[in-house]
Amino acid sequence: MIAIIDYDAGNICSVKNALERLGASYVLTADPAAIKAADKVILPGVGNAAEAMGSLEATGLTGLIRSLRQPVLGICVGLQLMCRSSEEGPVEGLGLLDCRIRRFPAQADAKVPHMGWNQIGNLDSKLFREVPEGSYVYFVHSYYPDLCPDTIATCHHGGILFSAALRWENFYGTQFHPEKSGGVGSQILQNFLVL
Amino acid sequence: MVAKRIIPCLDVKDSQVVKGINFEGLHEVGDAVEMGVRYTREGADELVYLDISATREGRGTFAALVEKIALGIDIPFTVGGGIGSLDDAARLLDAGADKISINSSALARPELIGEIARKYGSQFVVLAIDAKNVDGRWLCTTHGGTRFTGRELFDWAREAQERGAGEILFTSMDHDGTKAGYACELYARLDSLLSIPVIASGGAGSVQDIVDVLTRGRASAALAASIFHYGQIPIPQLKTALAAAGIPVRL
Q1: Is the ipTM of this complex over 0.95?
Q2: What is the DSSP string of B64-96?
Q3: In chain A, which residues have their Cβ closer than 8 Å to the Cβ of B220?
Q4: Which of A5, A88, A104, B216 is the most exposed place for a label (fewest CB within 10 A)?
Q5: Which of B1, B74, B242 to probe by mutation at the A interface, max A CB count within 10 Å?
Q6: pLDDT tens-digit readout, B20-73
Q7: Backbone dihedral region of A169: left (phi > 0), alpha (psi from -120 to 50 degrees) or beta?
Q8: How far from chain centre, in Å, is Cα B249?
């Protein structure tokens, strides 16, 4: 059973639909017992990191999330909340990933938000099994995770090389949306499901 | 580098994709979900579904269709047509749409852009503009180009960005349906004015037209309908040709 953490994180339809397509059983829940008992946990999130952190804290689940030992996947803002801090707010995160979230500077030839399909490289995790270097995945974000010791994939935008994915112990995160990234994204989600 | 996007546009009426040809009536060309799945498989980067139902019943069935599309495809898609309020947008978000596009309702009440963007994020709001050249000025129109609003294209696009739109989808009504190429100069000017992505729509007739609007026109994405629906330009061939022209595309 996959637990998707329910904390008013915005649109989570696409995560549910992707799990449906993979035939995985899931539950959207804020119940500590259900989250603790799940085989895998997904922390979704879209929108403003500071507001999302406020919503997550309001559920009282932050301590529980830190204590989880099964694989946990943060997606987009979900990943950002698992990091040390974000310039969006600014706000302190859960500190599970040794990473800071920064704002893309406005530049003439690199649009912000970074929106659309971009290539990921330096793939270094079981999360990317059978995913070729240079594969395209779908991003939508104005703030990016810095490079850090937990980086397991990178991406370029506007002259900045940033972390497209991170991992520390059982905590994984993708800045891109695997649930919207076609066949490559399905492969990454499938890899997470069999970790 | 972010890939340039190729976006098939599907006009939907009662769950069927239709395409008007020279305003001589609508021709059904296929099932909306099946066509979306097919385009996704062929390499489309995103899809746009426009509800052209004129009736309340039609509007009701569209939300149900959006749920099926969301379950069936694994790439982002935008839905538009008849979205007049935050509630309309919320209903489509709940059905699984990644973005909504608004046009007439935003011209009538520009605050709507900010209301939706604040609630669901700018990435959710595509502002569509249909404009026509009148004595050298590009004026925004509604109702398929039949009604003028007095708003000027570039001013309105800039205001929409300031209000929180995440993308501009601009259709030149002078080029739409001609298959004689996109309005490249207008897209290049929009690109230099705006920091958000611009989607080009209207006029695609050949691979070269799409190359032109993505290079000379500096558009972030090219949208087209009939060249894809009637198989005139298969998406895999188009993308191979774009890559050969040095344009970054997802293959």
Answers
A1: no
A2: HHHHHHHHH--S-EEEESS--SHHHHHHHHHHT
A3: 111, 116
A4: B216
A5: B74
A6: 543 345 566 788 899 999 999 999 999 999 998 766 666 778 889 999 999 999
A7: left
A8: 19
Contact, B75 vs B98, CB < 8 A? no
CATH number at A92 reads: 3.40.50.880
Nearest 5°: phi and psi at B171?
A: -110, 125
B70 and A13 in contact by Cβ < 8 A? yes
E-strand spans in B104-232?
A: 125-134, 137-142, 147-152, 167-172, 198-201, 221-224
Which residues of B have a catalytic role annotated? Answer: 11, 130
pLDDT of the residue at B212: 98
Domain count, chain A: 1
User: Given a cut of 50, is residue A23 above it in pLDDT?
Assistant: yes
Would residue B168 count as lying in a domain? yes
Range(s) of the domain holding residue A149 = 2-193
Count of domains observed in chain B? 1
Of B3, B74, B95, the CB nearest to A116: B3
Q: Does residue B152 sit within a domain? A: yes
Q: Give B197→chain A minimum CA distance, Å.
A: 7
Q: What is the pLDDT of residues B104-148, one digit of tens each?
A: 999 999 999 999 998 888 899 999 999 999 999 999 999 878 899
In a domain, B227, yes or no: yes
CB proximity B191 to A under 8 Å: no
pLDDT category of residue A56 using cuts at 50, 70 and 90? very high
Please tell me what DSSP assigns to residue A111: -
CA distance B122 to chain A (A): 9
**CATH number of the domain within which B145 lies:** 3.20.20.70
CB of B93 within 8 Å of any CB in chain A?
yes
In which domain, by residue range, is B76 found?
5-244
pTM, two decimals, is 0.93
- Tell me the shortest Cα–Cα distance from A11 to chain B, in angstroms: 7
For position B230, what pLDDT does the model report? 85
